[in-house]
Amino acid sequence: MNKIDLNMKIGDSVTIFPALSGIYxxxxxxxxxxxxxxxxxxxxxxxxxxxxxxxxxxxxLASLEEAGETTIKLNEQTNEQLIENIIHTHHAYxxxxxxxxxxxxxxxxxxxxxxxxxxxxxxxxxxLLRIDLEEHLIKEEKQLFPKIRIxxxxxxxxxIRKLEDEHDSAGDVLKRLTVVTDHFKLPEDACTTYAITYxxxxxLQEDMYQHVHKENNVLFERxx
Length: 224
Prior knowledge:
Blueprint: H1 10-16, H2 20-26, H3 39-43, H4 50-67, H5 79-112, H6 118-149, H7 153-180, H8 192-219
Helix pairs in contact: 1-8, 5-6, 5-8, 6-7, 7-8
């Protein structure tokens, strides 16, 4: 059975073994914005014992090996394939979910805000995230991706530096959302809309981790 190399960059480990992203997310390990760190270093961010996480990683790799699972690794995709993947998978998702979250959170504030004042913070943070990400998507689609397609390396590098900073800012907001919602834990008086909204927030976090990983640790690295 293959064992994970703890000196490998954590971003590379997800690029080679995409299934590991679920393990990292379950244990609160950042593999996207902090993707250039070694796995060993990244595990220090989690509150879970490192040996438990390593065991989970090794079990996942063993199950993949046993099943003979094969996937098209992200680093084997062309720039155009990655761009299309990002736009149609992640940008399309954000354009749909961010407005929907805003509507649901407004409803929750009206009904539950007096008992759960943290909902006002959640609404505010999602609003900030929506503003930042909508502008971010346009910059990628109208500025960065066209420059990548014509291989304007100098301009691409300049844009990447700015966009990576925006990724970090979005990551900070997502971490704050996790804290404010106590890791998306539902209160006892949660209604159906409450449950749906918190599930959407958790899915948003998971999608953003995948989204930023594909950009920071795969596509952008090609221009360093």
